[in-house]
Protein backbone atom coordinates (compact mmCIF):
# COMPACT_ATOMS: atom_id res chain seq x y z
CA UNK A 1 0.00 0.00 0.00
CA UNK A 2 1.46 3.41 -0.98
CA UNK A 3 2.14 6.17 1.54
CA UNK A 4 -0.49 8.40 -0.08
CA UNK A 5 -3.05 5.60 0.08
CA UNK A 6 -2.36 5.04 3.79
CA UNK A 7 -2.72 8.76 4.46
CA UNK A 8 -6.03 8.86 2.61
CA UNK A 9 -7.39 5.89 4.55
CA UNK A 10 -6.40 7.43 7.87
CA UNK A 11 -7.92 10.77 6.91
CA UNK A 12 -11.19 9.08 6.01
CA UNK A 13 -11.16 7.11 9.26
CA UNK A 14 -10.60 10.19 11.40
CA UNK A 15 -13.11 12.28 9.44
CA UNK A 16 -15.80 9.68 9.99
CA UNK A 17 -15.07 9.43 13.68
CA UNK A 18 -13.25 6.09 13.65
CA UNK A 19 -10.32 5.71 15.98
CA UNK A 20 -7.41 4.76 13.75
CA UNK A 21 -6.16 1.36 14.81
CA UNK A 22 -9.26 0.57 16.88
CA UNK A 23 -11.32 -0.90 14.07
CA UNK A 24 -10.70 -1.68 10.44
CA UNK A 25 -12.09 0.70 7.87
CA UNK A 26 -15.62 -0.32 6.77
CA UNK A 27 -15.72 -2.02 3.39
CA UNK A 28 -18.00 0.73 2.06
CA UNK A 29 -15.41 3.40 2.96
CA UNK A 30 -12.75 1.43 1.10
CA UNK A 31 -15.03 1.38 -1.93
CA UNK A 32 -15.75 5.11 -1.69
CA UNK A 33 -12.07 6.01 -1.53
CA UNK A 34 -11.32 4.06 -4.71
CA UNK A 35 -14.64 4.83 -6.42
CA UNK A 36 -16.46 7.91 -5.04
CA UNK A 37 -19.63 6.99 -6.96
CA UNK A 38 -20.18 4.19 -4.45
CA UNK A 39 -21.10 6.95 -1.97
CA UNK A 40 -24.15 7.77 -4.09
CA UNK A 41 -25.99 5.03 -2.17
CA UNK A 42 -29.55 4.69 -3.53
CA UNK A 43 -28.63 7.07 -6.40
CA UNK A 44 -25.80 4.77 -7.50
CA UNK A 45 -25.80 3.78 -11.16
CA UNK A 46 -26.93 0.22 -11.84
CA UNK A 47 -23.92 -2.15 -11.81
CA UNK A 48 -24.28 -4.10 -15.06
CA UNK A 49 -23.19 -7.70 -14.35
CA UNK A 50 -19.90 -8.74 -15.89
CA UNK A 51 -20.67 -12.45 -16.01
CA UNK A 52 -23.34 -14.91 -17.14
CA UNK A 53 -25.79 -16.46 -14.65
CA UNK A 54 -24.65 -19.69 -13.02
CA UNK A 55 -25.67 -22.87 -14.83
CA UNK A 56 -28.44 -24.97 -13.21
CA UNK A 57 -27.93 -28.61 -12.22
CA UNK A 58 -27.80 -31.02 -15.13
CA UNK A 59 -31.15 -31.75 -16.71
CA UNK A 60 -32.91 -28.57 -15.49
CA UNK A 61 -34.11 -25.80 -17.78
CA UNK A 62 -35.61 -22.38 -16.90
CA UNK A 63 -39.41 -22.29 -17.15
CA UNK A 64 -40.60 -19.30 -15.12
CA UNK A 65 -39.41 -15.99 -13.66
CA UNK A 66 -40.79 -13.94 -10.78
CA UNK A 67 -39.32 -10.45 -10.62
CA UNK A 68 -39.46 -7.22 -8.63
CA UNK A 69 -37.50 -4.16 -9.69
CA UNK A 70 -36.91 -0.65 -8.52
CA UNK A 71 -37.43 2.10 -11.11
CA UNK A 72 -34.35 3.31 -12.95
CA UNK A 73 -32.33 6.48 -12.45
CA UNK A 74 -34.36 9.58 -11.74
CA UNK A 75 -34.05 13.24 -10.86
CA UNK A 76 -33.99 14.32 -7.21
CA UNK A 77 -36.94 13.01 -5.28
CA UNK A 78 -39.01 16.14 -4.66
CA UNK A 79 -39.31 19.52 -6.36
CA UNK A 80 -38.94 21.42 -3.08
CA UNK A 81 -35.29 20.30 -2.89
CA UNK A 82 -34.57 22.14 -6.13
CA UNK A 83 -36.75 25.13 -5.21
CA UNK A 84 -35.26 25.56 -1.74
CA UNK A 85 -31.70 25.67 -3.06
CA UNK A 86 -32.70 28.18 -5.73
CA UNK A 87 -34.32 30.45 -3.14
CA UNK A 88 -31.32 30.14 -0.80
CA UNK A 89 -28.72 31.01 -3.44
CA UNK A 90 -30.74 33.94 -4.73
CA UNK A 91 -31.12 35.26 -1.20
CA UNK A 92 -27.46 34.67 -0.37
CA UNK A 93 -26.31 36.57 -3.45
CA UNK A 94 -28.57 39.48 -2.51
CA UNK A 95 -27.34 39.43 1.11
CA UNK A 96 -23.68 39.21 0.00
CA UNK A 97 -22.88 36.33 2.39
CA UNK A 98 -21.04 34.13 -0.15
CA UNK A 99 -17.33 33.57 -0.62
CA UNK A 100 -15.81 33.52 -4.09
CA UNK A 101 -16.40 29.76 -4.29
CA UNK A 102 -19.91 30.27 -2.96
CA UNK A 103 -20.76 32.83 -5.62
CA UNK A 104 -19.48 30.50 -8.34
CA UNK A 105 -21.57 27.64 -6.95
CA UNK A 106 -24.68 29.82 -6.67
CA UNK A 107 -24.41 31.07 -10.24
CA UNK A 108 -23.74 27.57 -11.54
CA UNK A 109 -26.78 26.18 -9.76
CA UNK A 110 -29.05 29.00 -10.94
CA UNK A 111 -27.93 28.35 -14.51
CA UNK A 112 -28.65 24.63 -14.08
CA UNK A 113 -32.01 25.09 -12.36
CA UNK A 114 -34.14 25.26 -15.56
CA UNK A 115 -32.93 21.73 -16.40
CA UNK A 116 -34.20 20.49 -13.02
CA UNK A 117 -37.40 22.49 -12.73
CA UNK A 118 -40.57 20.35 -12.73
CA UNK A 119 -38.60 17.15 -13.36
CA UNK A 120 -38.37 16.00 -9.73
CA UNK A 121 -38.86 12.24 -9.56
CA UNK A 122 -38.92 11.77 -13.35
CA UNK A 123 -37.20 8.78 -14.92
CA UNK A 124 -34.13 9.86 -16.87
CA UNK A 125 -32.68 8.47 -20.08
CA UNK A 126 -30.16 6.58 -17.96
CA UNK A 127 -33.05 5.01 -16.05
CA UNK A 128 -34.75 3.95 -19.29
CA UNK A 129 -31.54 2.41 -20.61
CA UNK A 130 -30.97 0.50 -17.36
CA UNK A 131 -34.32 -1.27 -17.57
CA UNK A 132 -34.04 -1.84 -21.29
CA UNK A 133 -30.70 -3.53 -20.67
CA UNK A 134 -32.05 -5.72 -17.86
CA UNK A 135 -34.97 -6.82 -20.01
CA UNK A 136 -32.63 -7.57 -22.91
CA UNK A 137 -30.37 -9.70 -20.74
CA UNK A 138 -33.32 -11.55 -19.19
CA UNK A 139 -34.47 -12.58 -22.65
CA UNK A 140 -30.96 -13.60 -23.72
CA UNK A 141 -30.18 -15.54 -20.54
CA UNK A 142 -33.51 -17.40 -20.25
CA UNK A 143 -34.67 -17.91 -23.82
CA UNK A 144 -36.58 -21.08 -22.89
CA UNK A 145 -38.93 -19.05 -20.66
CA UNK A 146 -40.06 -16.89 -23.58
CA UNK A 147 -40.83 -19.67 -26.07
CA UNK A 148 -44.15 -21.39 -26.73
CA UNK A 149 -46.55 -18.51 -26.08
CA UNK A 150 -45.54 -17.62 -22.49
CA UNK A 151 -47.84 -15.75 -20.13
CA UNK A 152 -46.16 -12.47 -19.19
CA UNK A 153 -47.78 -10.16 -16.66
CA UNK A 154 -46.16 -6.77 -15.98
CA UNK A 155 -47.36 -4.48 -13.18
CA UNK A 156 -46.08 -1.16 -11.90
CA UNK A 157 -46.75 1.10 -8.97
CA UNK A 158 -48.77 4.19 -9.86
CA UNK A 159 -45.69 6.44 -9.86
CA UNK A 160 -44.75 7.54 -13.42
CA UNK A 161 -41.06 6.57 -13.13
CA UNK A 162 -42.06 3.00 -12.27
CA UNK A 163 -44.53 2.86 -15.16
CA UNK A 164 -41.91 4.15 -17.60
CA UNK A 165 -39.40 1.61 -16.27
CA UNK A 166 -41.93 -1.14 -16.99
CA UNK A 167 -42.39 0.15 -20.54
CA UNK A 168 -38.62 0.22 -21.18
CA UNK A 169 -38.20 -3.33 -19.86
CA UNK A 170 -41.11 -4.68 -21.88
CA UNK A 171 -39.90 -2.88 -25.01
CA UNK A 172 -36.66 -4.85 -24.77
CA UNK A 173 -38.58 -8.13 -24.62
CA UNK A 174 -41.01 -7.26 -27.41
CA UNK A 175 -38.25 -6.05 -29.73
CA UNK A 176 -36.62 -9.46 -29.43
CA UNK A 177 -39.84 -11.33 -30.11
CA UNK A 178 -42.70 -9.41 -31.69
CA UNK A 179 -45.08 -12.29 -30.95
CA UNK A 180 -44.79 -11.86 -27.19
CA UNK A 181 -47.99 -10.67 -25.59
CA UNK A 182 -47.36 -8.76 -22.37
CA UNK A 183 -50.16 -7.52 -20.16
CA UNK A 184 -49.11 -4.15 -18.66
CA UNK A 185 -51.05 -2.69 -15.74
CA UNK A 186 -50.92 -0.21 -12.90
CA UNK A 187 -53.42 0.23 -10.09
CA UNK A 188 -53.68 1.71 -6.63
CA UNK A 189 -55.40 -1.51 -5.55
CA UNK A 190 -52.09 -3.34 -5.22
CA UNK A 191 -49.93 -0.57 -3.73
CA UNK A 192 -49.70 -2.62 -0.53
CA UNK A 193 -47.65 -5.05 -2.63
CA UNK A 194 -45.79 -2.76 -5.04
CA UNK A 195 -45.06 0.17 -2.70
CA UNK A 196 -46.38 -0.78 0.76
CA UNK A 197 -45.30 2.27 2.76
CA UNK A 198 -47.27 4.50 0.37
CA UNK A 199 -50.35 2.32 0.66
CA UNK A 200 -53.48 3.04 2.66
CA UNK A 201 -53.77 -0.64 3.50
CA UNK A 202 -53.46 -1.91 7.09
CA UNK A 203 -50.02 -1.85 8.72
CA UNK A 204 -48.63 0.86 6.42
CA UNK A 205 -48.49 3.13 9.47
CA UNK A 206 -45.55 1.05 10.67
CA UNK A 207 -43.43 2.90 8.13
CA UNK A 208 -44.72 6.41 8.80
CA UNK A 209 -43.20 7.20 12.16
CA UNK A 210 -39.41 7.26 11.96
CA UNK A 211 -39.03 7.11 15.74
CA UNK A 212 -40.65 3.71 15.78
CA UNK A 213 -37.64 2.46 13.89
CA UNK A 214 -35.11 2.98 16.66
CA UNK A 215 -36.86 4.41 19.70
CA UNK A 216 -35.70 7.15 22.04
CA UNK A 217 -32.67 5.16 23.20
CA UNK A 218 -30.77 6.13 20.06
CA UNK A 219 -31.87 9.79 19.76
CA UNK A 220 -28.90 11.29 21.65
CA UNK A 221 -26.44 8.96 19.94
CA UNK A 222 -27.89 9.80 16.54
CA UNK A 223 -27.47 13.55 17.11
CA UNK A 224 -23.91 13.13 18.36
CA UNK A 225 -22.97 10.90 15.44
CA UNK A 226 -24.46 13.30 12.90
CA UNK A 227 -22.42 16.18 14.31
CA UNK A 228 -19.26 14.06 14.17
CA UNK A 229 -19.56 12.65 10.66
CA UNK A 230 -21.19 15.70 8.99
CA UNK A 231 -19.24 18.69 10.37
CA UNK A 232 -21.31 21.23 8.46
CA UNK A 233 -19.74 24.33 10.04
CA UNK A 234 -16.31 23.44 8.74
CA UNK A 235 -17.64 22.39 5.35
CA UNK A 236 -19.80 25.45 4.67
CA UNK A 237 -17.03 27.95 5.47
CA UNK A 238 -15.82 27.38 1.93
CA UNK A 239 -19.03 28.82 0.52
CA UNK A 240 -20.46 31.22 3.11
CA UNK A 241 -19.00 34.15 5.06
CA UNK A 242 -21.81 34.18 7.64
CA UNK A 243 -22.79 30.76 9.01
CA UNK A 244 -25.34 32.25 11.41
CA UNK A 245 -27.16 33.57 8.34
CA UNK A 246 -27.16 30.05 6.86
CA UNK A 247 -28.41 28.59 10.13
CA UNK A 248 -31.32 31.06 10.27
CA UNK A 249 -32.25 30.76 6.61
CA UNK A 250 -31.76 27.05 5.93
CA UNK A 251 -29.93 25.02 8.56
CA UNK A 252 -26.27 23.98 8.48
CA UNK A 253 -26.45 20.20 8.40
CA UNK A 254 -29.60 20.35 6.32
CA UNK A 255 -27.78 22.40 3.66
CA UNK A 256 -24.77 20.09 3.48
CA UNK A 257 -27.04 17.06 3.09
CA UNK A 258 -29.09 18.91 0.45
CA UNK A 259 -25.94 19.68 -1.53
CA UNK A 260 -24.98 16.01 -1.30
CA UNK A 261 -28.40 15.06 -2.68
CA UNK A 262 -27.95 17.59 -5.47
CA UNK A 263 -24.59 16.13 -6.41
CA UNK A 264 -25.59 12.47 -6.46
CA UNK A 265 -29.00 12.98 -8.09
CA UNK A 266 -27.57 15.13 -10.89
CA UNK A 267 -25.31 12.24 -11.89
CA UNK A 268 -28.49 10.25 -12.65
CA UNK A 269 -29.44 12.73 -15.37
CA UNK A 270 -28.18 14.04 -18.69
CA UNK A 271 -28.17 17.62 -17.38
CA UNK A 272 -25.06 19.39 -18.78
CA UNK A 273 -23.94 20.43 -15.30
CA UNK A 274 -22.13 18.40 -12.67
CA UNK A 275 -21.53 19.04 -8.97
CA UNK A 276 -19.03 16.28 -8.20
CA UNK A 277 -16.51 18.88 -7.01
CA UNK A 278 -18.67 19.62 -3.96
CA UNK A 279 -17.28 16.81 -1.79
CA UNK A 280 -14.02 14.97 -1.31
CA UNK A 281 -14.04 11.17 -0.91
CA UNK A 282 -13.42 11.65 2.83
CA UNK A 283 -16.46 13.90 3.15
CA UNK A 284 -18.53 11.44 1.14
CA UNK A 285 -17.75 8.72 3.68
CA UNK A 286 -19.59 10.64 6.40
CA UNK A 287 -22.52 11.56 4.17
CA UNK A 288 -22.85 7.96 3.00
CA UNK A 289 -22.74 6.71 6.60
CA UNK A 290 -25.53 9.05 7.71
CA UNK A 291 -27.82 8.25 4.78
CA UNK A 292 -27.16 4.52 5.11
CA UNK A 293 -27.97 4.72 8.82
CA UNK A 294 -31.33 6.35 8.08
CA UNK A 295 -32.22 3.47 5.75
CA UNK A 296 -31.15 0.97 8.38
CA UNK A 297 -33.34 2.63 10.99
CA UNK A 298 -36.46 3.06 8.91
CA UNK A 299 -36.45 0.06 6.55
CA UNK A 300 -33.94 -2.32 8.12
CA UNK A 301 -33.82 -3.99 11.54
CA UNK A 302 -33.11 -0.76 13.43
CA UNK A 303 -31.70 -0.47 16.95
CA UNK A 304 -31.25 -4.02 18.27
CA UNK A 305 -33.93 -5.23 15.88
CA UNK A 306 -36.64 -2.97 17.33
CA UNK A 307 -37.89 -1.80 13.93
CA UNK A 308 -41.03 -3.48 12.61
CA UNK A 309 -41.65 -1.55 9.39
CA UNK A 310 -39.87 -4.10 7.17
CA UNK A 311 -42.49 -6.70 8.07
CA UNK A 312 -44.88 -5.06 5.59
CA UNK A 313 -42.74 -6.63 2.85
CA UNK A 314 -44.64 -9.80 3.75
CA UNK A 315 -47.35 -8.69 1.29
CA UNK A 316 -44.83 -8.59 -1.57
CA UNK A 317 -43.38 -11.96 -0.57
CA UNK A 318 -46.87 -13.44 -0.33
CA UNK A 319 -47.74 -12.19 -3.82
CA UNK A 320 -44.54 -13.71 -5.23
CA UNK A 321 -45.32 -17.07 -3.61
CA UNK A 322 -49.03 -17.08 -4.49
CA UNK A 323 -48.53 -16.21 -8.15
CA UNK A 324 -45.64 -18.65 -8.60
CA UNK A 325 -47.55 -21.49 -6.97
CA UNK A 326 -50.60 -20.82 -9.13
CA UNK A 327 -48.67 -20.43 -12.39
CA UNK A 328 -46.45 -23.46 -11.88
CA UNK A 329 -49.40 -25.64 -10.89
CA UNK A 330 -51.16 -24.61 -14.12
CA UNK A 331 -48.09 -25.48 -16.15
CA UNK A 332 -47.59 -21.91 -17.37
CA UNK A 333 -44.25 -20.72 -18.64
CA UNK A 334 -43.52 -17.03 -18.59
CA UNK A 335 -42.83 -14.24 -16.14
CA UNK A 336 -44.40 -12.02 -13.48
CA UNK A 337 -42.70 -8.63 -13.74
CA UNK A 338 -43.17 -6.03 -10.98
CA UNK A 339 -41.86 -2.46 -11.05
CA UNK A 340 -41.74 -0.39 -7.90
CA UNK A 341 -39.23 1.22 -5.59
CA UNK A 342 -36.09 0.73 -3.51
CA UNK A 343 -37.53 0.30 -0.03
CA UNK A 344 -39.56 -2.87 -0.80
CA UNK A 345 -36.35 -4.54 -1.98
CA UNK A 346 -34.48 -3.52 1.16
CA UNK A 347 -37.38 -4.58 3.38
CA UNK A 348 -37.75 -7.94 1.63
CA UNK A 349 -34.03 -8.68 1.94
CA UNK A 350 -34.29 -7.83 5.64
CA UNK A 351 -37.41 -9.95 6.08
CA UNK A 352 -35.66 -12.93 4.46
CA UNK A 353 -32.39 -12.14 6.29
CA UNK A 354 -30.40 -12.40 3.08
CA UNK A 355 -26.63 -11.98 3.50
CA UNK A 356 -26.99 -10.53 6.99
CA UNK A 357 -29.46 -7.78 6.08
CA UNK A 358 -31.34 -8.41 9.34
CA UNK A 359 -28.33 -8.09 11.63
CA UNK A 360 -28.83 -5.86 14.68
CA UNK A 361 -26.41 -3.14 15.83
CA UNK A 362 -25.88 -2.06 19.41
CA UNK A 363 -24.89 1.51 18.50
CA UNK A 364 -25.59 3.71 15.45
CA UNK A 365 -21.89 3.97 14.59
CA UNK A 366 -21.71 0.17 14.22
CA UNK A 367 -24.23 0.10 11.36
CA UNK A 368 -21.69 0.96 8.65
CA UNK A 369 -19.97 -2.38 9.27
CA UNK A 370 -23.05 -4.58 8.86
CA UNK A 371 -25.54 -2.85 6.54
CA UNK A 372 -25.07 -1.36 3.08
CA UNK A 373 -28.05 0.05 1.20
CA UNK A 374 -25.76 0.78 -1.76
CA UNK A 375 -26.72 -2.74 -2.84
CA UNK A 376 -30.11 -1.31 -3.82
CA UNK A 377 -28.98 1.11 -6.57
CA UNK A 378 -31.13 2.59 -9.29
CA UNK A 379 -32.93 -0.22 -11.20
CA UNK A 380 -32.06 -2.73 -8.45
CA UNK A 381 -33.96 -5.97 -8.98
CA UNK A 382 -34.76 -9.31 -7.42
CA UNK A 383 -35.26 -12.24 -9.78
CA UNK A 384 -36.49 -15.69 -8.80
CA UNK A 385 -35.60 -18.10 -11.61
CA UNK A 386 -37.48 -21.41 -11.67
CA UNK A 387 -36.12 -24.55 -13.35
CA UNK A 388 -37.65 -27.96 -14.13
CA UNK A 389 -36.38 -31.31 -15.29
CA UNK A 390 -38.22 -33.98 -17.27
CA UNK A 391 -39.48 -35.59 -14.06
CA UNK A 392 -41.28 -32.37 -13.15
CA UNK A 393 -39.00 -31.52 -10.22
CA UNK A 394 -38.73 -27.76 -9.72
CA UNK A 395 -35.78 -25.74 -8.41
CA UNK A 396 -35.59 -22.01 -7.69
CA UNK A 397 -32.79 -19.55 -7.01
CA UNK A 398 -32.88 -15.86 -6.08
CA UNK A 399 -30.75 -13.19 -7.72
CA UNK A 400 -30.06 -9.60 -6.66
CA UNK A 401 -29.09 -7.29 -9.50
CA UNK A 402 -28.72 -10.33 -11.78
CA UNK A 403 -26.24 -12.10 -9.48
CA UNK A 404 -26.96 -15.17 -7.34
CA UNK A 405 -27.63 -14.56 -3.65
CA UNK A 406 -29.01 -18.03 -2.87
CA UNK A 407 -28.16 -21.56 -3.93
CA UNK A 408 -30.71 -23.65 -5.86
CA UNK A 409 -33.60 -24.65 -3.58
CA UNK A 410 -36.27 -27.25 -4.07
CA UNK A 411 -39.38 -25.19 -4.79
CA UNK A 412 -41.37 -27.06 -2.15
CA UNK A 413 -38.81 -26.15 0.52
CA UNK A 414 -38.57 -22.52 -0.57
CA UNK A 415 -42.36 -22.22 -0.61
CA UNK A 416 -42.75 -23.72 2.86
CA UNK A 417 -40.10 -21.44 4.32
CA UNK A 418 -41.61 -18.42 2.60
CA UNK A 419 -45.11 -19.19 3.86
CA UNK A 420 -43.77 -19.48 7.41
CA UNK A 421 -41.98 -16.14 7.05
CA UNK A 422 -45.17 -14.44 5.84
CA UNK A 423 -47.24 -15.88 8.67
CA UNK A 424 -44.66 -14.86 11.29
CA UNK A 425 -44.38 -11.32 9.90
CA UNK A 426 -48.14 -10.78 9.88
CA UNK A 427 -48.38 -12.05 13.46
CA UNK A 428 -45.64 -9.66 14.58
CA UNK A 429 -47.32 -6.72 12.86
CA UNK A 430 -50.56 -7.45 14.66
CA UNK A 431 -48.76 -7.69 18.00
CA UNK A 432 -46.87 -4.46 17.39
CA UNK A 433 -49.99 -2.49 16.55
Describe this structure as you would to a colleague:
The protein has 433 residues and is α/β, with parallel strands linked by helices. The protein folds into 2 domains: 30-75 and 122-213 and 295-432, 3-Layer(aba) Sandwich (Rossmann fold), CATH 3.40.50.1240; 79-121 and 217-280, no CATH class. It has 16 helices and 8 strands. The chain has helices spanning 3-15, 27-34, 79-95, 100-116, 125-141, 160-176, 191-194, 211-214, 219-229, 232-236, 243-249, 252-266, 281-299, 314-329, 342-351, 411-432; strands spanning 61-70, 151-156, 182-186, 334-340, 381-388, 394-400, 403-404, 409-410. Strands 1, 2, 3, 4, 5, 6, 7 and 8 form an 8-stranded mixed β-sheet that branches. Strand 2 (151-156), helix 6 (160-176) and strand 3 form a beta-alpha-beta unit. Helix 5 (125-141) packs across helix 6 (160-176). The radius of gyration is 23 Å and the shape is globular.
Which helices and strands appear, and what pairs or packs with what?
Layout: H1 3-15, H2 27-34, E1 61-70, H3 79-95, H4 100-116, H5 125-141, E2 151-156, H6 160-176, E3 182-186, H7 191-194, H8 211-214, H9 219-229, H10 232-236, H11 243-249, H12 252-266, H13 281-299, H14 314-329, E4 334-340, H15 342-351, E5 381-388, E6 394-400, E7 403-404, E8 409-410, H16 411-432
Parallel strand pairs: 1-4, 2-3, 2-4
Antiparallel strand pairs: 1-5, 5-6, 6-7, 6-8
State the separation between the terminal residues, measured CA to CA: 53 Å
Helix content: 40-55%
Beta-strand proportion: 5-15%
Whole-number total of structural domains: 2
Low-pLDDT segments: 1-22
Principal-axes geometry comes out as: globular
CATH architecture call of the largest domain: 3-Layer(aba) Sandwich
The CATH class of the largest domain is Alpha Beta
Order of helices and strands: HHEHHHEHEHHHHHHHHEHEEEEH
Structural class: alpha/beta
Tally of DSSP helical segments? 16
